[in-house]
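pipeline stage [seq->struct] | target=Phosphoserine phosphatase | organism=Catenovulum agarivorans DS-2 | residues=344
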Amino acid sequence: MENFQSFAVSPANIVLNQALIQSLDLNAEQQVVLNPQDLTQYQIQAYQGHQNKLELIAYAQQLTSTQIAGISQLLADSVDANQWLRVITAGDNQGAIGLAWQLTETLPDDKKQALVEFAANSQIEIWQAAVRPQIQQAGLLLMDMDSTTIKIECIDEIAKLAGVGEEVAKVTELAMQGKLDFAESLRGRVATLKGCPVDVLDKVANDLPLMHGLARLVKVLKQHDWRVAIASGGFTYFADKLKNDLGLDAAVANTLKIADGKLLGEVEGRIVDAQVKAETLQALADQFAVEHSQTIAMGDGANDLTMMAASALGVAFEAKPIVQQKASVAINHHGLDALLYLIR
């Protein structure tokens, strides 16, 4: 590639991170590509994005020359050695960095497994992705709530304060693994909360720990005219608070029956199970006139698999093994905002 420039560092010592790319003073209409044979050589191009090309993406706070070389070695025979590597940023001069190799084939299982092990050992994300949503076009992100947008399972926290924490937590874990019918298990768990004062809900709602990367993810997507919503097998008491606090476009969850300031141990109406989540994805896409190709569903439990399968891109976040296996891609070592680098 002609007309390249060079970083003032040796190839062996280069560290790809946000600070290095920021030093180039790019504008929103530009992107950087690197020479895979000499990582110090770069070229600034007009921004093109992923263009639905088949790519292998590595994402981390920073990528060392050793890590980049290791990935390139694992990808041997699956990439064009002369194809320069696409640097991915989120466009807000924050966060981590991504690097994309354009693939010439879908990776065979042995290479996929080797990359999974490499990613785990290096604490980086590695994704194979082809046709997928693009941030430049309006889209819809539908997320699970408990253990996805927040760091807790609300029903477990309520149960702890109500004195039945251990009993409920065991059932929650089995349900998230797909070993119990979700609706049946939810009714059983809620029944144990009968008589619990509403004050307990307020204590949990007023101290919801947001998942790392959530605020940035929502902010950047909103700047690109995306719709962001929650579909939860949890409860409206918490989902509605998140909707208001974060400026989300919708929140669908279960409603707890309450009378005289206490829980009745029952849920009103139809349980928000896997099928309802999938229906919510379609309903919101219709409501906001979002094309199916621009829909993303993200979650961590078996109850999220149906909506993930119904979306254009299903993302597992710190998920149970069954979800990791079936999702389009998985985020295991970083925050929710890692998603931004998949759709840039």
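stage status: PASS
auto-comment: The two ends are 23 Å apart (CA to CA). The chain has two domains: 5-129, 140-341.
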